[in-house]
Design brief:
It is a single chain. With about 450 residues, this protein is of the alpha/beta class. About 30% of the residues lie in helices and about 20% in strands. The protein contains 16 helices and 19 strands. A hairpin with a 6-residue loop joins strand 12 and strand 13. The structure holds NADP nicotinamide-adenine-dinucleotide phosphate. The site of NADP nicotinamide-adenine-dinucleotide phosphate has 24 residues, from helix 7.
């Protein structure tokens, strides 16, 4: 039987889970995965926080998938630049887009484009050693940094800013970030959400680690906001809101702590505040906030601005308010949400005239939500749709021939070489790896140079 040739664009969790499910399906499938960087794993390498090595263990599963003889990795190949999407569609039987949502959203207020008002994407990619962000230099000279948004990415950024150097030096944080954070003068982080404690998007483990698990950090939470009215208490008691209740208990425990004396750093968990302007002339110097109050029913709270405003002096403002995907040429795209338009993972169902249908998986399909495991169920839906489509094998020949790539691809053996060099470099100091952050060096190592 001729195998179905499937191209996957992107090598993060959703791409690898899609590959795994295709290779495990009853159909004979060959998978070729295309990745812009010479390194695989997408957000696991450049998004997951360096002090969360446990989460990164998922790459063991991906590594196993990559060693399947029916799988090939083509790193250093940017679709849209080194090869056109239309070319892939003419050489494969199906193409799955799994290239994520890489653009962070900057808060849209006066002054937000000042230097040192940045998105969480910039900060996270910087500390994780993404080659595109290695030259960024965050201002760590001011005592205070402001993080806007109450999600897990905001927690990651806050934790990295407030962590002891010793703690970070045991991780795979990029050397440039480790060095900059060693000299950081940031002592206070304001983690600010526009709504209240019951509306924050934090997950429990991440919140507990931040509020109760950080050494040398005094945590300030306004206890008055943790005093709930009967309707809110009833809401928290609903089984579906069990995680919310656990979060509140953690916040209450943090608010009642009295043993903060001697801590060198401070975390302020601030609710009901929206930034209205960022001030500064050459760079950020302060953020203006308006105090909000909650409106609407308990299960759908919105906010209303009050008359009360205040300023926070700060040298760095990080917008951690979500991510957007980028459209590729010709892709049906929902500009509001920054995702592909699709039905159960199928973007375009025209598999005619030798042009393969397009599918989507992961953040480019559903938006930036969920944890790594969420991408498996998401990819399963897409793969199920693809298999059910019973695609005609229109490409019995080797799909790579005549792709005419405009770059030298890095195969999985090339990545193995980069991986070995990084791991070996980390060994003397007990770190999991020391990341190479420059593409040219990666390519030299990958090609055995
Ligand atoms: P998120 O969980 O969606 O949180 C976004 C936050 O931004 C919310 O608090 C939201 O507030 C706020 N926001 C949005 N627009 C705003 C505006 N204009 N002004 C002020 N605030 C605004 O997103 P995320 O933190 O980027 O995380 C993305 C996904 O990755 C999540 O599913 C997260 O759990 C996951 N993740 C997981 C881990 C982990 O498991 N360790 C780590 C990192 C990320 P409203 O609710 O009021 O809109």
């Amino acid at each position: 039987m001729t195998a179905l040739n499937v191209a996957i664009v992107g090598s993060g969790p959703s791409g690898f889970f899609a590959a795994e499910l295709l290779l495990k399906s009853d159909s004979a499938v060959v998978v070729h995965m295309f990745e812009r960087l010479p390194t695989p794993y997408g957000l696991v390498r450049s998004g997951v926080a360096p002090d969360h090595q446990q989460i990164k263990q998922v790459v063991r599963i991906f590594d196993k998938i990559a060693r399947n003889p029916a799988f090939s990795f083509f790193g250093n190949v940017e679709v849209g630049k080194d090869v056109e999407l239309t070319t892939l569609r003419s050489r494969y039987d199906a193409v799955i887009l799994a290239y994520g949502a890489s653009d962070g959203t900057l808060i849209d207020i006066p002054g937000s484009t000042l230097p040192q008002s940045i998105t969480a994407t910039t900060f996270v990619n910087w500390y994780n050693g993404h080659p595109d962000y290695r030259d960024f230099s965050p201002c760590l000279e001011h005592e205070t940094a402001v993080i806007i948004g109450h999600g897990n990415v905001a927690i990651d950024v806050t934790r990295i800013l407030l962590s002891d150097h010793d703690r970070l030096s045991k991780t795979d944080i990029a050397d440039h970030a480790l060095d900059a954070l060693r000299h950081s003068k940031v002592r206070k982080v304001h983690l600010v959400g526009r709504r209240g404690p019951l509306q924050a998007s934090f997950t429990t483990a991440e919140l507990r680690e931040l509020l109760l698990g950080m050494s040398n950090v005094a945590t300030k939470v306004d206890a008055r906001l943790l005093d709930f009215e009967p309707a809110e208490l009833a809401f928290m008691e609903q089984p579906v809101n069990a995680a919310l209740k656990r979060n509140v208990l953690i916040m209450q425990e943090a608010a009642s702590r009295t043993s903060d004396a001697g801590c060198e750093r401070e975390l302020r968990l601030v609710f009901l505040a929206s930034p209205t302007a960022i001030h500064g002339s050459t760079h950020v110097t302060s953020v203006e906030f308006v105090q909000n109050c909650l409106a609407g029913p308990v299960d759908g709270r919105t906010v209303r601005a009050t008359e009360e405003t205040y300023d926070v002096s700060a040298g760095l403002v990080v917008s951690s308010i979500g991510f957007r995907g980028r459209p590729m040429e010709g892709l049906p795209f929902d500009e509001n949400r920054g995702v592909c338009r699709h039905a159960a993972g199928r973007i375009i169902d025209t598999g005619t005239d030798g042009i393969a249908p397009l599918y989507a998986a992961g953040w480019i399909k559903r938006g930036a939500s969920g944890v790594i495991g969420t991408n498996r169920a998401d990819a399963a839906e897409t793969v199920q749709t693809l298999i059910a489509d019973r695609l005609a094998r229109v490409t019995p020949r080797s799909p790579m021939s005549a792709l005419n790539l405009q770059s030298i691809p890095v195969d999985f053996e090339g990545w193995d070489r980069i991986d070995s060099v990084e791991r070996a470099a980390g060994l003397p100091t007990g770190r999991p790896r020391r990341k190479i952050v420059d593409t040219k060096t990666m390519l030299t190592i990958a090609t055995g140079g």
